[in-house]
Inverse folding.
């Protein structure tokens, strides 16, 4: 029995470390001009967006293949971070991860952006955390979890719409759970804040919570 346990532990131990061909780390940065909004197009995975100082958008992303696939290196070599800039908007997109490829990898990314920039995010599925921006935020996601932390003093209104799941607004002096639509959806509509920013989140399936600090 001890011999069998030792074999199991050994097998688990040798399966955990990723080979160089199974993993890739991306780092990129782009200046955000005065008056530009940031739009993030992120297919799916774990994405965290943090507010920072300065006028640069930075992204650090790690991608690892599930299991050990023979085509992993080819798959990861096709991934890239693309920037498109116009006078009104900086567009950040992760390219090369079509839906059929996304099912084969784990994606974990962190974006740091100027706190005073307008932000919009389009995601298919995953977990999204936004912490600190003080201007308008718009999120459109198909399925997953969304958490937003923003200063209450910066916010004028919050609109949350979940097709199937839960929506909540939390603050030091308030808690609002979404009104149910057709017994499965959830909506929050609050417009009593002292600031000027608006938070709009549309989520197909899952849950969204906004914390007003």
């Amino acid at each position: 029995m001890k011999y069998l346990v030792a074999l199991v532990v050994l097998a688990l131990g040798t399966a955990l470390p990723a080979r160089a061909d199974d993993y890739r780390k991306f780092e990129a940065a782009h200046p955000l001009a005065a008056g530009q909004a940031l739009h993030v197009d992120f297919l799916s995975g774990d994405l965290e967006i943090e507010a920072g100082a300065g006028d640069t958008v930075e992204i650090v992303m790690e991608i690892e293949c599930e299991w050990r696939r023979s085509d992993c290196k080819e798959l990861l070599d096709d991934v890239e971070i693309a920037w498109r800039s116009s006078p009104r908007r900086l567009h950040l997109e992760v390219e090369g991860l079509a839906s059929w490829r996304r099912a084969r990898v784990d994606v974990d990314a962190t974006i740091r952006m100027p706190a005073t920039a307008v932000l919009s995010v389009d995601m298919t599925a995953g977990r999204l955390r936004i912490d600190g921006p003080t201007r308008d935020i718009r999120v459109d996601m198909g399925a997953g979890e969304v958490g937003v932390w923003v200063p209450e003093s910066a916010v004028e209104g919050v609109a949350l719409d979940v097709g199937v799941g839960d929506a909540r607004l939390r603050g030091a002096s308030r808690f609002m759970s979404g009104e149910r639509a057709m017994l499965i959806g959830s909506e929050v509509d609050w417009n009593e804040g002292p600031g000027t920013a608006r938070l709009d989140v549309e989520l197909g399936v899952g849950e969204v919570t906004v914390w007003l600090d």
